[in-house]
């Protein structure tokens, strides 16, 4: 049984739906590896290769994309134990 999933959140800092996911992580004081696709064509291309589109937010869970902010927040809620704590200095 796999204990820890490999996670990456693709987002754009100007996207309100991404903000919802980021705010939820802040509220939990948790973090996941993130890639901001704004102004980064390499990350945009990566996202399109994984999910078939450039839609954000997209949480990639063990190479499987999960789209839509509500679905991502629900997954994060159900899998809090897998998330890393946000270092205190990043919460300031």
UniProtKB/TrEMBL annotation:
It comes from Aerophobetes bacterium. Pfam families: Glutaredoxin (PF00462). Gene3D superfamilies: Glutaredoxin. This is Glutaredoxin. Residues 5-84 form the GST N-terminal domain.
């Amino acid at each position: 049984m796999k204990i820890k999933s490999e996670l990456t959140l693709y987002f754009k800092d100007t996207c309100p739906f991404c903000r919802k996911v980021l705010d939820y992580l802040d509220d939990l004081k948790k973090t996941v590896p993130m890639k901001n696709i704004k102004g980064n064509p390499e990350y945009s291309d990566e996202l399109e290769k994984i999910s078939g589109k450039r839609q954000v937010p997209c949480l990639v869970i063990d190479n499987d994309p999960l789209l839509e902010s509500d679905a991502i927040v629900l997954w994060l809620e159900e899998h809090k134990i897998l998330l890393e704590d946000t270092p205190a200095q990043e919460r300031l």
